[in-house]
Amino acid sequence: MSQTHSIAAIDGSGSFDAYVATPAGEPRAAIVVIQEIFGVNAGIRQKCDKLAAEGYLAVAPDLFWRIEPGVELDADVPDDFARAIALMGKFDQTKGVADIESAIRAGRSLSGGKKVGCVGYCLGGRLAFMTAARTDVEASVGYYGVGIDGLLGEKHAIAHAVLLHVPTADHFVGPEAQKAMHAGLDDHHKVTIYDYAGLDHGFAAELGQRRDEAGAALADKRTADFFAEHLG
Fold this sequence. Notes:
Layout: E1 2-8, E2 15-21, E3 30-34, H1 42-53, E4 57-61, H2 78-90, H3 93-110, E5 116-121, H4 123-134, E6 139-143, E7 161-167, H5 175-185, E8 191-196, H6 213-230
Parallel strand pairs: 3-4, 3-5, 5-6, 6-7, 7-8
Antiparallel strand pairs: 1-2, 2-4
Helix pairs in contact: 3-4
């Protein structure tokens, strides 16, 4: 079952919508699904629905609500892609993490006090890393997060398990950035990084031309195992 749920912003500035997918029985845990630059679109909702089918309560907050509520864009449409880049340029990431924290609290409440994890894609992969360092989220997964090499100064604050999926041919995250991520995080006892040789940014998208079936299946299986271990 899915519904739209209103979440009060932690800073008291208003409220925003979130897509919530609920499992058939009691939730194993809650997972906040963090959008790409394309908003809470059909692909992100499908991610939530799959998590609900696995027994999790999934919450996908509309992180662009402060700029333009209800954005839904298609990565394969050039005009939509350009619009997404423009929205990203206006996005306040610190406030975005605060909104994710609000969604974590909502997930904890809606699940009856269960553990809460997060999983993010692209921009959401970066935000998942920031969330791991700045909130009490209990497990974090980032797919092809952009700019994580510039966030390594926050790694000391990571208290719970983090899993990062890194495609080696990511045209938004080049070899030097990937090298820096490994150098900075390979010895972190809470962080695991998996590389995907030859795959590009967006390889695990649910819909569209970016998806690589084999790569997505492998990464998603690793994510499922990770959440089963750390959330139950």
